[in-house]
Amino acid sequence: MYITIDGQKLEFKKGETILQVALRSGIDIPHFCYHPALSIAGNCRICLVEVDNIPKLVIACATLAEKDMVVKTNTPKVIEAQNAIMEFILINHPLDCPICDEAGECKLQDYAYKYGKGYSRFDEEKVIKDKRVPIGPNVLFDAERCISCSRCIRYCDEISKSHELTFVNRGEKVTIETFPGKQLDNPYSMNVIEICPVGALTSRHFRFRARVWDMSFTYSICPGCARGCNTIIGVRNNEILRIEPRENLEVNQYWLCDYGRLNTYKFVNDVNLRIDSPKVLIEETSSEEKKQVDVDWKAAIEKAVSLLKEEDNNYLFIGSALSTLEDNYTLKKFANNILGINEIYYIPHIDESFGDDILRKSDKTPNSKGVELLGFKKISNKIIKELKEGKYNFLFILNEDISTLQNFSEFQPNIAKSIQLLSTINNYSNEADVLLPLSTYAEINGTYINFQNRIQRLRPAVTTIEQERLPGEFSLSRLDKFGAHNDRWSQGKKFNSRPGWKIIKQIAKEFNIEFEFENSEDVFIELCNSITILKGLDYDKIGNQGYKIK
Ligand code: SF4
Ligand code: SF4
Fold it and tell me: I need a surface site. Which of 35, 181, 252, 474 has the fewest CB within 10 A?
């Protein structure tokens, strides 16, 4: 079945609306209240179009496409209607774009340029409504900016199913409110910030932190749980300011949970938590007490190698489901090929109370499928008992906190030596003989495999002192649409950390073994060639939407 829109003959499926067919075919019909994941409300009226043999204009979001229907989206009648709707919506709008967080990425602002007349005939007093209303722990509401599209209400009814919001009053007094005694407080509350097409619902965490045209944006993956939601990391002056959802219908649709959005970036910026220099443990001659001191990378690697070359080392290697395939593969290669260690363990992070039937998984690691594919074993009670009994005298830890192990404080493992590759300090990091600063997920290229066996890509959003950037790779910038590239990599605090694969390659080199990879993609291609179901994959094939492994 075919429909014609602006002279283009387009195929459609029964049940599709004119707007859906148009958007799918790259024809832009303006819309505020329509959202592909929500029910149709048809209340903003900006999507009016002309249909042959129908005397009045119809709204494209609620009119089903029909066989041989002829639709026009830019006739004088349609343009006049769009002008009128924009004038109506803007009558009471406060026009406070200069102090609005949404400015630069606001549908109302864009449509005012594209479909408005550029001036207002309204010179009466505007209706005054509440501003800066904290309607939940994470969201602020500005009633004057609201255009009553009802997207946020439908979201709470249909997606988070938490039913906190409703319209109250009528006409120009209409506004949204939470039900008495309720707040907009659910594990997915912050998605209303993006679905609100204007600046009426904004983030209490991002508020006034930056203008969006001063930021760079990078496609990434949330490391908060095994779902691996697709994200966009927003950065200014080398500091992450916000995480937004990125559409992936197979993984997270259009959403993120508030935990993932808020808890996966603050540690990246935190100078008090991050390990910013390699450290080695030395004995103070005066007190005979041991303490960690800062050294350069060369001295730290030499110390690590001298410890690794000592006789009678009995190793326990701990990889990490929080780290990429690339880092874990290199750890495995080092342990297997250089030290002859075949067993590598990882620590599961399961929290049954965290999982739900929307997005969140009770496995709070992004890559447990990945480490299992590499053959790593879950650390067992037997291993914990052996640690307690002192069976191992050398712990090699990649991105893990063994103080999270059950009953850690009771057993306090009696380990003679440890090398730890970590991004942030933890309860066991000050025991490390050599502590090597590891780049976070937001500073590296790499891959995770989510619970659906979908392999997905990380890209560096903030830069470290010694940054890897793959050829031709740039962070996205909203300014790109104006033809300018906004690259903020050179400003702001940079940490002295490195990706795990690179640190381990440097250690291997001191054993006169050269790992033949120069960048993370080389590591990835080598590891794929060693695992049958990954053979032939490269970063391009994974792309922006991930690649489902059979
Ligand atoms: S707050 Fe935003 S999403 Fe909610 S009704 Fe108003 S404009 Fe629409
Ligand atoms: S559901 Fe999991 S992956 Fe998605 S945003 Fe939340 S923590 Fe992150």
Answer: 181
User: What are the residues facing 291 on neighbouring strands?
Assistant: 282
Task: Name the DSSP letter for residue 212.
Answer: G
**Where exactly are the structural domains of the chain?**
2-90, 124-269, 270-550
Outline where DSSP puts E strands in 47-173: 48-51, 58-59, 70-72, 133-134, 139-141, 165-168
Q: What single letter denotes the amino acid at residue 271?
A: V
Q: What is the four-CA torsion angle of 246, 193, 352, 273, rounded to 10 degrees? A: 80
Q: Are 226 and 368 in contact (CB under 8 A)?
A: yes
Residue 480 pLDDT more than 80?
Answer: no
Give the number of other CB atoms < 10 A from CB of residue 470.
12
pLDDT of residue 213: 86
Type of residue at 94: P
Alpha-carbon span 45 to 59, nearest angstrom: 6
Q: Is 202 helix (H, G, I), strand (E, B) or coil?
A: strand
217 close to 205: Cβ distance less than 8 angstroms: no
Residue 414: pLDDT band (50, 70, 90) is: confident
DSSP code for 283: E
Place of tokens 């002295």: 496
Smallest CA separation from ligand 1 atom 8, residue: 149
pLDDT number for residue 151: 98
Mean pLDDT of 359-375: 98
**Do 451 and 363 form a contact (C-beta atoms < 8 A)?**
yes
Q: What is the pLDDT of residue 474?
A: 58
Predicted local confidence at residue 288, as pLDDT: 74
User: Domain spanning 124-269 has what CATH number?
Assistant: 3.30.70.20
Query: Residue 187: nearest ligand to its CA?
Result: 2
SS3 state of residue 458 = strand
Q: Does domain 270-550 have CATH number 3.40.50.740?
A: yes
pLDDT higher than 80, residue 482: no
Report which protein residue has its CA nearest ligand 1's atom 6.
146
By C-alpha distance, which of 60, 88, 105 is closest to 196?
Answer: 105
Tell me the residue ranges of DSSP E strands in 260-307: 279-283, 290-294
Q: What is the CA radius of gyration of the chain?
A: 27
Q: What is the pLDDT of residue 389?
A: 85
Dihedral sign of CA atoms 85, 88, 94, 98 in order: positive
Paired strand residues for 175: 168
Atom of ligand 2 nearest to the CA of 225: 2
Query: How confident is the model at residue 489, as a pLDDT?
Result: 47
Judge whether 309 and 283 are in contact, CB under 8 Å: no
Average pLDDT, stretch 208-231?
A: 94
pLDDT at residue number 214? 85
Taking the centre of ligand 1 as the mean of its atom positions, its distance from the CA of residue 167, in whole angstroms, is 10
Binding site membership of 200 for ligand 1 (Cβ less than 6 Å): yes
Domain 2-90 -> CATH class: alpha beta
